[in-house]
Every structure is written in C-alpha cells, then in structure tokens.
Amino acid sequence: MAAKKSKKDNKATDNTIAVNRQASHEYTIDETFEAGLVLEGWEVKSLRDGRIQLKESYVEIRRGEAWLSGAHVSALLSASTHVNPDAVRKKKLLLHRRELNKLIGSVERKGYTLIPLSMYWIKGRAKLKIGLAKGKKLHDKRAASKDKDWQRDRARIMKHG
C-alpha cells in the first residue's frame, strides 16, 4: 500500500513567478544578488497570478537606493475600485548596505549594468534575482549560440551512441 502524501508533497515546488530569458542571451552575467521588493497589495495579487513581465526591465540606482524600472505588472480585473494601478510603477529593491555599495561601485566605475533575471517566492515574500552583467557583442552571441548547439548535439550523440 502506498504511503500517504503530506500537504508539502502536494504543494508545487516551483516558486518561480517570472524569468527574463533574454538576459542570458544579451548579457554575460558575472554575479547575482537576491533582493526583496516593496510592493502594493494589488501588485502582490497580480504576482500570485503570474502577471509580470521582466523582459524590458532594468535596475537603476538613485540616491543610494536600487529601483526596479520597466517591469510591467498588469492589474487583475477584480482589483478594487479605489486603487489606481500603475502597471510600470518603479519598485524599490531591498538590499543590504554592503551589497548596495558593491553594486554602486561596479555600475559607476567598471561599466556594469544591473538586470533582473528572475522573480520568485520565498516564504510568501517576492524576491528578485539581480544580475551584475556586461553587454555581449554580436560575435559573443554567435559563439555562445554555437556552443549551446554543440552541447545539445553532444548530448544527443551520447544518448543514442
């Protein structure tokens, strides 16, 4: 007889809300950071429904604080009437001071850029994975594409012998 499944087993283990797939194609990512977000109630409800797009978003640093710009969070149709949802509102990111100082130094002095890689839930709180990245040139993109194709072919050859 099969063992009973607990509630934890029934729960989906994938807590991912959104992924920026284009980021790894456009940038070489050197380091990643995890940041919390300051959200409004309607935004949390929309995130639970998966209504966010990170494709054209970026992270900017103003006055010693990190902000997520360009992320499109579409409001639910059942949103309250007294709330005016702004779909592309800038959201403050919550980072430790030493992380912020490192990011500020890298962006201002070394020419890096900050891009959001993915958004996910941890213990009921929305987290954003930020990548410290440099833009790829066209020849870098071609080389990465060739390498990816070769890895796929090699796996196929190894599987079939």
From TrEMBL:
Instruction: Write out the GO biological process terms.
Output: trans-translation; trans-translation-dependent protein tagging
Q: Does the keyword Cytoplasm apply?
A: yes
Primary place of residence? Answer: cytoplasm
Q: Which protein is depicted?
A: SsrA-binding protein
Species in which this protein is naturally found = Methylomonas methanica
Q: Which domain of life is it from?
A: Bacteria
Q: Fetch the InterPro entries from UniProt.
A: SmpB, SsrA-bd_prot, SsrA-bd_prot_CS
Q: What does this protein do?
A: Required for rescue of stalled ribosomes mediated by trans-translation. Binds to transfer-messenger RNA (tmRNA), required for stable association of tmRNA with ribosomes. tmRNA and SmpB together mimic tRNA shape, replacing the anticodon stem-loop with SmpB. tmRNA is encoded by the ssrA gene; the 2 termini fold to resemble tRNA(Ala) and it encodes a 'tag peptide', a short internal open reading frame. During trans-translation Ala-aminoacylated tmRNA acts like a tRNA, entering the A-site of stalled ribosomes, displacing the stalled mRNA.
Q: Which NCBIfam families match?
A: PRK05422.1, smpB
Instruction: State the family it belongs to.
Output: Belongs to the SmpB family.
| Protein localization | Cytoplasm
A GO molecular function annotation here is:
RNA binding
- The answer to whether UniProt assigns keyword Repeat to this entry is no
Q: Name one GO cellular component term.
A: cytosol
Sorted alphabetically, the keyword list is:
Cytoplasm, RNA-binding
